[in-house]
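FAQ
Q: What does a multi-component entry look like?
A: The components come first, one per line:
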Amino acid sequence: MSTEENTFDLLRVPLIGRVLKWRHARTFFQVPLLLLGVLMILHGFLGPSLAPKNLATTLTWVHFRGALVLVLLVAGNFFCFACPFVLVRDVTRRFFRPVRNFPRYLRNKWLSAALLVAGLFVYELFDLWSSPWWTAALISSYFLAALIVDGFFKHASFCKFVCPIGQFNFVASTLSPLEVKVRDQAICTDCRTKDCIRGRRDPISPLVTIQRGCELALFQPRKTGNVDCTFCLDCIQACPHDNVGILARVPASELTVDPLRSGVGFLSRRKDLSALSMLFVFGALLNAFGMVSPVYALENWLARTLNVTHEAPVLAVLFVIALVIEPIVLLVIPVWLTRLSVSGSPMSVLVRYSYALVPLGFGIWLAHYSFHFLTGFLTFIPVLQSAASDVGLNVLGTPAWGLTGLAVGPVHAIEFGFIGLGLLGSLLVSYRLAEQDAPTKAVRVFLPWASLAAVISIAALWLLSQPMEMRGTILGG
Amino acid sequence: MHLRVASRTYYFNGRVISRKEAQKIQKSALVLFLLLCGVLACHRSTPTPSITFKYNVTPQPARVGEATIDVEIRDKANQPVSGAHVELEGNMSHPGMSPVSGVAREIESGNYRGTLQLTMAGDWIVLVNVTLSDGERLQYRFELNGVRSN
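Then the predicted structure of the entire assembly, as tokens:
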């Protein structure tokens, strides 16, 4: 079926399409981000130790996170597209080509999910938002990790199996309105070279690849959705028929279908992806919980109960409650009620319906990160002015420290809107799944999952309405 | 950049280089690394203070709203330092917030008092920027953790 004529295709938009189809488009966007990354690292290590006055902390925790989720919401995974870590890796691979495949037992999302938990834990334990030095160290270690992993292993092993930010983006991009997709399946059926996956070979020396194919093992004709797609656009460059576009689609629609996906498999059989999705949802609540007043009362109570004075065990208990006990307690009832109408093991029901909560999880991340982004959007200006002034460049003028962003009131309304949007998405996905599994008892299957989504939404709204406390100190503070 | 050694053959950027060249590159990399460490180490050293500061914040515990900050400045001989211009600046520990500022006036010899409007609960870092009567500038910093919401 041809999708070319009636679907919006970003590559057909004048100028934008031409830029994105340019052979060096990715590098063009990666280079400024790489320079920015280097600037952030230098300022983080050598600049002011106050987080609000340092580019590393300001750009990472206010701007990068906010821009990331907003771009995922309105477009797609364009941050992976412009990833500077991959640029450094690509340059290194000009001199050193790895020959090993990533270990088979690690070719799943368990490692990256564990790293995502570790990232969230370290963020809270070491108050990364308040430390330019540690933020710079984190960015540097990211560059190093990408270099080491992809220095040893072939293809995009780091992106597909290790990078926690990438996994976050993969899950969130299931809600994006754009997808890298085949325009006309019939053309792929007749295609003999399969360059989109194999890469385009030199006609004279067929062993030489002149344009690589998908490094994440996504074969375009059988690719469904955005999971594992870094928007690198290699397939677009490689396709000899100009048959791959960046097409519009209904956000979250990929969560309502379960075909065999190239490079991914069946979503309903991927326990690791399901766990990652649950982590995405409950991690959103936990991360937002970390910045409101009640968390400190709870942590102090936990510290007294456990009779500890160090933050790590308290945080560990909190993480186990939020990421293990809470999901189990909340998911048991919907799974049990669903099995009254739908056949399948509890695990298969859990895995299948876990994806229905992803839109709500994304709504919570959006609400949280957009708060920092919108209320502090202009703060990069005085920080940049100050950084320039510190190195003797006064061309940017005196730092205007009064610049911030939107007032908290309107931003709260936007936050609530994102939660509502997420809830709506989760309701639609769960109803669609219920309809497919039990056409005559769809409402009966739908209601427990709708109730669960409502409970999580209420918890999120409660969290966002709490007085915010930007604290690093917990015990005895 | 990649330096590969295999059976006494040295490669750099894909080309064969001599052993001397390889050693030179290794030494340069080492010197660069040590220089970087040195720069970082120097940057993190702190000078010995010639002036001592004491501070007091009211109310305790601090809450969102006005906080009164008393600063006592003394010299090496433990004598009060008078006639200084003292500015207060409060920053949250999280980026994305604009700082708050105020001026502390001398209420008695060597004792200065000013206020800061703490706009949000959480951890604050207060900078005391002092210009002594002889023009010397000093900065003192203290943490005001756990400011509570009303």
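Q: Is there any commentary attached?
A: Sometimes. For this entry: The two ends of chain A are 63 Å apart (CA to CA).
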